[in-house]
Amino acid sequence: MPGTQFDALVVGAGAGGLFTAARLAHAGYRTLVVERLDKVGGRASTTEIDGFRVNDGAIVIEVGGITEETFAEVGAQFDVRTPAVPVLYRVGNKNLDVTRGGWGMLLSTLTRQGAKLVSGIGAARKDDDALPGEELSTADWVGRYSRSAAVQGVFRNMCASVFAVGSEELPARVFLTYFTRKSAFKRFGFCPDGTIGVWESLAATVTARGGEIWLSSQVEALHVTDGRVTEATVTRDGETVGVTCDVAVSDVGPAATVGLVGAEHLPEDYREQVRIKDRPCSMLALNFASRERLVDVPGMLLFSVTERLCYVANFTDTCPEMAPPGWNLYVAASVPKPAVGDFDEAAEIALLRADLRAHIPGFDGARELSVAVMRDGWPPQRAVAGHDLPHTTPIPNLWNVGDGVKEYANGGTTACAETAKLVVEQILADARVPAEAK
Ligand SMILES: Cc1cc2nc3c(=O)[nH]c(=O)nc-3n(C[C@H](O)[C@H](O)[C@H](O)COP(=O)(O)OP(=O)(O)OC[C@H]3O[C@@H](n4cnc5c(N)ncnc54)[C@H](O)[C@@H]3O)c2cc1C
């Protein structure tokens, strides 16, 4: 049927799906993206509430790395504004700017053992042998240097902010690799339309190149013939449509991909890996607004000593259009204990509110716009960093992208951009192999 034959099918219009689709369309593939929701962006989208652009998940987009590079390569507009000072750390009742002094300044303010910790981080930067094994947690690694609650608190909140787990749940090797060898979100910004704006911009490049984005549509099944995905069953406008494709890329996470393909088409050892590594993290986000300025920082404020609160971000200093005139818009985030596994939602929300009352004077008079508990099938990270599945599958023309198949020690939308690049490079390399050699 005309209109239902595509070179590439991408299941899901989250960050991973759209980075992939934009690259494939740029490489000349006629690409279809199918998205269950009525908007793009998935867990990094935005919902309008009474004139406030409230982010559903991701709030900051990395600047200067693989994300911005992808936008430049595919010719998409990159409307991300960087705050005057990206991050401040709340130490005691001061907000510390570590832009110049870095780790040394932060840690020496928190503890007399600061220099030792800095040298531990420095050793990991230079020498692979100084990186601990996978079994040592970040909290235990920090504990070798310092017993200070403020130091442990700052490391916990960094792990929570970047990886959506506590420092007791994140391998120290991942933490150190990320902060000493990766781009590590050193530069980032907010999209004035809310984070959805960046995905709309990528989606526009797909349609401009003859691709299509079907919203409010769902892939029900991926069909395998002779060991390859050849067709998908899609529900669209209440109708069932068959879509044929040469290549299929799934952004719905490896476990859901297995469900779409049917377990019988995948070997048991792969299915077992998927079962073991299907360990989503959890995070709470509380969006609030006020007429008076409650948070005296232009970007993000990270905390050292809290029960749960890891950061508060101030959107409207940098992007006033995210709120109605005269209003300030903020989000506060926390990671529950445990972040992987079950927890008491009501108790965790209460702890986050209690932290906000303790650390943000005037919070009680603010307007709460929404509280989201992200977990299970809609998590902040589909896999704990360091425990990801590969993006390849046993089916040669089926790939996974997104934050369940991150490269080692990466996180969030940056990791989605990195995986999309690797997957598209491999798809293009495969296409160069003559059919008889496959
Ligand atoms: C509170 C919070 C704060 C965060 N902060 C940041 C941050 O500041 N910066 C950052 O980089 N990252 C951040 N993250 C992480 C980031 O949001 C995620 O890593 C990223 O959005 C994951 O994208 P994805 O493409 O892997 O998956 P998803 O966004 O889940 O995309 C998958 C899409 O597939 C769709 N779908 C599912 N099944 C089907 C089907 N059968 N057919 C069709 N469509 C289907 C879904 O509706 C969804 O839209 C945050 C996350 C949370 C929750």
Can you give keywords for this protein?
single chain; 438 residues; alpha/beta; FAD/NAD(P)-binding domain; Guanine Nucleotide Dissociation Inhibitor, domain 1; Polyamine Oxidase, Chain A, domain 2; 7-stranded mixed sheet; 12 helices; binds flavin-adenine dinucleotide
Account of the protein in words:
The chain is an alpha/beta fold and 438 residues long. It has three domains: 5-47 and 56-80 and 194-278 and 383-437, FAD/NAD(P)-binding domain (3-Layer(bba) Sandwich); 102-181, Guanine Nucleotide Dissociation Inhibitor, domain 1, CATH 1.10.405; 281-374, Polyamine Oxidase, Chain A, domain 2 (Alpha-Beta Complex), CATH 3.90.660. Helices cover 32% and strands 23% of the residues. It has helices spanning 15-26, 66-74, 102-110, 114-126, 138-143, 149-163, 172-181, 196-208, 254-261, 268-277, 345-359, 412-431; strands at residues 5-11, 31-34, 46-49, 52-55, 61-62, 87-91, 94-96, 188-189, 212-214, 217-225, 228-236, 239-250, 283-290, 300-303, 309-314, 328-334, 367-374, 398-400. Strands 1, 2, 9, 10, 11, 12 and 18 form a seven-stranded mixed β-sheet that branches. α1 runs parallel beside α8 (196-208), α1 runs parallel beside α12 (412-431) and α4 (114-126) packs across α7 (172-181). The radius of gyration is 22 Å and the shape is globular. The relative contact order is 0.18. The mean pLDDT is 95. Flavin-adenine dinucleotide binds at residues 11-17, 34-37, 42-44, 57-60, 218-219, 251-252, 256, 283, 285, 333, 374, 380-381, 402-403, 412-414, 416.
